[in-house]
Specification:
Layout: E1 17-21, H1 27-39, E2 55-59, H2 70-73, E3 75-79, E4 86-90, H3 91-97, H4 99-110, H5 117-122, E5 124-126
Parallel strand pairs: 1-2, 2-5
Antiparallel strand pairs: 3-4
Helix pairs in contact: 1-4, 3-4
């Protein structure tokens, strides 16, 4: 009787492609779904220490929504580490100038901080409009 736990090897990992239309969707809800797909939690052979996640392509990122008054109140803050290096951007400004960064920032915050984070984020492709160069890679239609 075999009582060993199955560990998938590099050859066993199958990476699927998911296309997500963000038009009219709420930022946090779609970001948590994307993070789950990037981690691979939906797979049968999921393991925390292995990178078994899928590729995710998001279109229409410029048409994301926020609930409540966050559209006016939400800000993004950063500091360079130097004196006077504090920067603050409003959500409205960020969504107009770089909608891809808004979604990437939200998804990055939902991924665990470990050695796999950079690899997982590299599999996320975000586009502000409908056009994208990954047309023939999806087995199914739009997911969520």
């Amino acid at each position: 009787m075999n009582k060993k736990t199955y560990q998938p090897g590099e050859g066993d990992i199958k990476r699927n492609w998911h296309l997500i239309d963000a038009k009219g969707k709420i930022l946090g809800r779609i970001a948590s779904k994307i993070a789950s797909l990037l981690i691979g939690k939906h797979k049968v052979y999921f393991a925390n220490h292995l990178d078994v996640g899928d590729f995710v392509v998001v279109i229409n990122a410029s048409e994301l929504k926020l609930s409540g008054r966050k559209m006016k109140q939400k800000t993004y803050k950063s500091h360079s580490g130097y004196p006077g290096g504090f920067k603050e951007f409003a959500f409205e400004k960020m969504i107009k100038e770089a909608p891809e960064k808004v979604l990437m920032h939200a998804v990055a915050g939902m991924l665990p901080d470990n050695k796999l984070k950079k690899k997982r984020l590299a599999r996320l492709k975000v586009f502000a409009k409908e056009e994208h160069p990954y047309e023939g890679r999806f087995k199914t239609g739009l997911t969520s």
